[in-house]
Design goal:
Helix content is 54%, strand content 18%. With 124 residues, it is α+β, with helices and mostly antiparallel strands. It has a three-stranded mixed sheet with strand order 1-2-3, with helices on one face.
Amino acid sequence: MKKNSTKNNRINSEVQKALSSIIRTVKDPRVDPFTSVTDVYVAPDLKTCKVYVSVLSDDGDETIKGLRSAEGYIRHELAREVNLRNTPELTFVLDNSISYGVNMSRKIDEVMAADRKAQEAREE
């Protein structure tokens, strides 16, 4: 996989900041108010953009559907905020890494608590 250039990294960062603020203004009721843009990958030719979105609640699929239906509005606002040669086509992807990390942390805590209980039982 080819590494991103410095210019592409800057574009990704600017688009991520812009999309984070734009998504908060989407009026679709399916879009969760606690939606955050975790990562953005704009293709070097500026034609496509993959947007990774994390949702705090459990209805992430509904949020993705809402974002897909509001894609025209989001692209229009992105074109106004970020001055690019082309406004990229947006593809929204649900990012479960945060919820996965929280779940794994909870499981580790449970295993550690069970291990402590077993250790205390052996010492008695």
